């Protein structure tokens, strides 16, 4: 399922060349990847570097200089909102989250370009997590023989959905305007099946 959001080698070259990051000579190009949990970020990163890593493969420690640094995460690119009243209306804990986001500016400033995977319906996140739990249970993953049932998944996902509601609209607006942090940005929308679909404009996701 995850691979459905990926492109072939021939397809991805022209697509990502549109980012046109401009990094100072002598250091790696930093590309930030912001995407919701479960949409296929890991598969996308594996595809970008030209391989699919097997589950359980040990991390490789790179000691030589690198040409490209990929910085990915479900909240990568989120910027402090600074609107206490709006945040409180979404969730009382978001004010604390907002204060911590200021510390991410140092990471974000190091990025030379961004790729943002967007969604228009937050229910996809819960569905993807449910699929992941079912797959882990079916595979007999050590430590999670049963996985979370649907109610547990819904409870777990509900704890971070307020952050999506608070910060995704501004992220999508930036991606469609001058770019995230003013950097070259590629925005792609995926549907519930993780397929890239055309979009004229992406706003606040429903759900």
Automatic annotation (TrEMBL):
It comes from the Eukaryota. InterPro entries: P-loop_NTPase. This is Deoxynucleoside kinase domain-containing protein.
